[in-house]
Design goal:
With 346 residues, the protein is of the alpha+beta class. The chain has a single domain, classed as Thrombin, subunit H (Beta Barrel). The chain is 13% helix and 26% strand. It has a six-stranded antiparallel barrel. The longest helix has 12 residues, at 331-342.
């Protein structure tokens, strides 16, 4: 059985989980507590310089993809008789809302809305996340991407890449490496300052009611050159709502493709997928498994600008990796975005 298959569950197996600690982060061992803004926010993380120093090329190469709990995932699938926390309308869609526009990196053409296909390369706006989990005893990794917000510091990834499903605690030593390749960080490393995710992921984790909220936004510190992440590599735009079926470019670092040491991408058409009382977007044929968790699903991608709009992310899939699923970006995402921008640290 491949590493991918041992980590993903079926009828909804999650390609996910987070990780934790060497460098002490202020409050990182505390159980997450929700706020009035509808999000779960970590304490401000301490010592970003030490976090960056921890992630040597050797440690980054050795980091493991997210693991699923030792209990078989199928035993954890549950739907509750009470209405789910974020119950969607009958048609499971909301009006499409553009939360933020893409920003091309320096040296690339300015973004113009496109539906380019036959993509042959993707930019450094996409990258890898590294961290340690309080419930595990090794370094771990996910995929992620920078998002263009007014603060220019935000990275989007999966909820299970910031809160451990086993311990339900914040991960530690979290760092984003845009354009990661074979242990190298060509644009530097961006350590977490604050992490945010949804109450659904925090409370229900590996279940249908948890996966609907499997998304996170992380405010990052500047790299060693003093540059913010979006100023360094550009940032994708962000769309909430809209149809579940859409053409997307999936980007990530799945373990069974190039050993997860180089970025992979796949073009596919999102399809509606019912799981219990919920509905998700899925894309078939990518063979993305563990390691791809948190990687963006991009709509209206421009090959010239190397950015697009994030409309989903890699979250869960069956054991055979025949498809990858994404939570539906709805009001939860809007809440995350609003909280991240209104309370972003300076």
């Amino acid at each position: 059985m491949s590493a991918r298959k041992s980590s993903l569950g079926a009828v909804a197996a999650l390609a996910m989980i987070a990780t934790v600690v060497m460098v002490p982060a202020a409050g990182a061992d505390e159980l997450p507590v929700g706020g009035a803004d509808g999000t779960i926010t970590s304490p401000e993380q301490a010592d970003p310089e030490l976090t960056v120093e921890y992630w040597t090329p050797q440690r980054m190469r050795a980091a493991q993809p997210p693991e699923s709990p030792s209990t078989p995932f199928r035993t954890r699938i549950r739907t509750r008789s009470a209405a789910p926390t974020a119950k969607m309308p009958a048609d499971y869609t909301e009006q499409e809302t553009v939360l933020t526009q893409p920003k091309a990196p320096l040296g690339k053409a300015a973004y113009s809305k496109s539906d380019d296909t036959k993509v042959t390369a993707v930019g450094a706006v996409n990258g890898k996340v590294f961290y340690r989990d309080p419930a595990l005893d090794h370094d771990s990794r996910c995929s992620a991407a920078a998002v263009n917000t007014p603060k220019k510091t935000v990275v989007l990834t999966a909820g299970h890449c910031v809160i451990s499903a086993r311990s339900k605690k914040w991960v530690k030593n979290w760092v984003f490496v845009p354009g990661y390749k074979d242990g190298q960080a060509p644009h530097g490393k961006f350590a977490a300052k604050k992490m945010r995710t949804t109450p659904e992921w925090t409370k229900y984790n590996f279940s249908v009611d948890g996966v609907v909220g499997d998304v996170a936004m992380v405010e990052t510190a500047p790299n060693s050159k003093g540059k913010k992440v979006v100023d360094e590599v550009g940032g994708h735009g962000l769309i909430a709502g809209g149809p579940l079926n859409f053409h997307a470019l999936m980007v990530g670092y799945p373990s069974d493709i190039k050993e997860g040491e180089q970025v992979s991408f796949f073009e596919g058409d999102g399809k509606s997928y019912d799981w219990g009382e919920r509905r998700f977007s899925t894309i078939a044929g990518s063979k993305f498994g563990v390691g791809a968790s948190g990687g963006p699903w991009l709509a209206h991608y421009s090959k010239e600008a190397e950015v697009g709009y994030v409309r989903g992310l890699s979250s869960f899939g069956p054991q055979d990796d025949s498809f990858m699923g994404s939570p539906y970006f709805n009001t939860q995402l809007k809440d995350l975005y609003a909280a991240t921008e209104s309370k972003a640290t300076k």
